[in-house]
Amino acid sequence: MTATAAPLDLLLLPTWLVPVEPAGVVLKEHGLGIRDGRIAFIGPRAAALKLVANEVRELPGVLLSPGLINAHGHAAMSLFRGMADDLPLMTWLEKHIWPAEAKWVDEAFVRDGTDLAIAEQLKGGITCFSDMYFYPKVASDCVHNSGIRAQIAIPILDFPIPGASTPDEAIRQGVELFGDLKHHPRIKITFGPHAPYTVSDDNLEKIRVIAEELDAAIHMHVHETASEVQQAVEQTGERPLARLGRLGLLGPRFQAVHMTQISEDDLALLVESNTSIVHCPESNLKLASGFCPVERLWQAGVNVAIGTDGAASNNDLDLLGETRTAALLAKAVAGSATALDAHRALRMATLNGARAMGLESEIGSLEVGKAADIVAFDLSELAQQPIYDPVSQLIYATGRECVKHLWVAGKQLLDDRQLTRMDEQQLTATAIAWGQRISGHHE
User: Are 241 and 220 within 8 A, CB to CB?
Assistant: First the structure.
């Protein structure tokens, strides 16, 4: 970079910088410069100090990494956190969640629940999240106002849902929102057929055609439980993934969420189609849905991202904690201590999520020219000492309360643990009020 270049807006000087790409690298005593919302410089501290910057921040004891990417969730469901715990998936959905949604979900619920989820995610180091919930336009307004980055998947089911009385209406709203936001710098609209058992072939066919026309992604719960797969085979003789393959939905723009059941045929189909998988280990553990064989997928070359799922089945939106669970679980499932090491786990929570969403040229790693979506983890506390490998320490010994600062597109949204654009006390009060209404204490 030349000396005549415009001054940097901000120069960050951490102890460690983990770019994620190239893989496995930890840069010590390096600086990162931001200009116009993008990463303009990465280099040794001595070179960094020669640059002109409007602001310089020393970050001793801090590890800078790409912002975490939560590749699957239902943001507004934060308001149902802990409501129907310790139940299997279908009982949880049919007896508790769907009736509660029918009764409570409106635009105000989605706005307040999404704001709560965004604030929780920012405080946990997440700079980009995927959302699949009702009233997607309301959720996209929340994303726009908060400064975070998101993929909004338009929910489509065969039956009426809050905000759309037919699947055609849901698809039409999706196409309209896609058009309205196609130039938005931080929001990407995708199509979200709920699951193979809630969407017919006809509707999947419509979604495929429209997604192809718009070059939009498809985000769907697939093979979440063994019984889902078993029922499909009993009823139709076909596994759900094979059905999606036959209908032409699989491909690099398809995001298969959960995938706890993977046969040899399934694996071949995933590899051949270049489909991404979003692994949600804690939700799958809590609902006893099964285990996604992450190491087997990784070795086969399948892109595996990570998601928290909604707070109603997790019960937190803690992607750092989720990543640790993923790393530990991958070892148990593979029967190998070398499965999903710390560096690969971090890659799964960053660049792989970006790839799944088709945003890998923009976010997911710290590289010059990419958007400055950055998180600063404070590793100076007693519980992190001594540090041999800061990435191991981050994945295996650090909680999300170590997230100190966070930037999205160069804008600081978390400064020394404080949200810069959102009112935490107000969000808490609003969530408590919803809880009282829903539990019937204040009708």
Answer: no
Which pLDDT tens digit goes with each residue over 73-88? 999 999 999 998 998 8
Output the CA–CA distances (angstroms, integers) from residue 156 to 227, 267, 314, 427, in the order listed. Answer: 22, 26, 23, 29
Q: Identify whether the C-beta of residue 190 lies closer than 8 Å to the C-beta of residue 216.
A: yes
Strands (E), 18-135: 27-28, 30-35, 38-44, 56-66, 68-70, 126-132
CA distances from 142 to 110, 131, 244, 337 (A): 9, 12, 32, 41
Report the DSSP pairing between strands 418-419 and 126-132: unpaired
As a whole number of angstroms, the distance between CA 21 and CA 24 comes to: 8
Q: Burial, 367: exposed, middle or buried (Cβ in 10 Å; 0-12, 13-18, 19+)? A: middle
Which residues are paired to 262 by β-bridges? none
d(C-alpha 359, C-alpha 356), whole Å: 8
- What pLDDT, on a 0 to 100 scale, did the predictor assign at position 195? 97
Q: At what angle do helices 424-438 and 107-123 cross, to 10 degrees?
A: 130
Nearest CA to 277 out of 196, 348, 227 is that of 348
Q: Are 269 and 222 in contact (CB under 8 A)?
A: no
Chain position carrying tokens 């148990």: 332
CA distance 326 to 149: 23
Q: What is the 3-state secondary structure (H, E, C) of 318-349?
A: CHHHHHHHHHHHHHHHHCCCCCCCHHHHHHHC
Which is nearest to 363 in space by CA: 420, 305, 409?
Answer: 409
Tens digits of per-residue pLDDT, 126-152? 999 999 999 999 999 999 999 999 999
Chain-centroid distance of CA 239 in Å reads 26
Question: What is the rounded radius of gyration, in angstroms, for the C-alpha atoms of the chain?
Answer: 21
For residues 190 and 254, give the distance between their C-alpha atoms in angstroms, rounded to a whole number: 10
% the chain with pLDDT above 70 = 98
CB contact at 8 A, 54 and 7: yes
Q: pTM to 2 decimals?
A: 0.97
Q: What's the rounded Cα separation, in Å, for the pair 129 and 150?
A: 5
The tally of CA atoms less than 13 A away on the side-chain side of residue 262 is 22
Dump the DSSP string for 249-292.
--STTEEEEE-----HHHHHHHHHHT-EEEE-HHHHHHTT----
* Cβ atoms of residues 343 and 393 within 8 Å: no
Q: Which of 86-90, 160-164, 413-417 shows the lowest per-residue confidence on average (mean pLDDT)?
A: 86-90
Indicate the pLDDT class of residue 286, thresholds 50, 70 and 90. Answer: confident
